[in-house]
Amino acid sequence: MVHLLRQKATRAQLAEMLETLGGYIKLAVDIEQEIGAGGGALHADCEAVLLEAGSRRPSWTRRFKPESRRL
Hints:
With 71 residues, this protein is α+β, with helices and mostly antiparallel strands.
């Protein structure tokens, strides 16, 4: 599941985003609008959610490993 994030993700959102890939979460962020999206199988899934929310183009994409808390 991909979540649009306008603030810090909740534990429930993290759990849902981890369901797709298990060990890590795909992320895309629009730094100008200060929003992000996380989850899905591809960074493109996150980018699509940002574009639907009015983003012109995500500023960057990363993957997040919760156990290490690193991008």
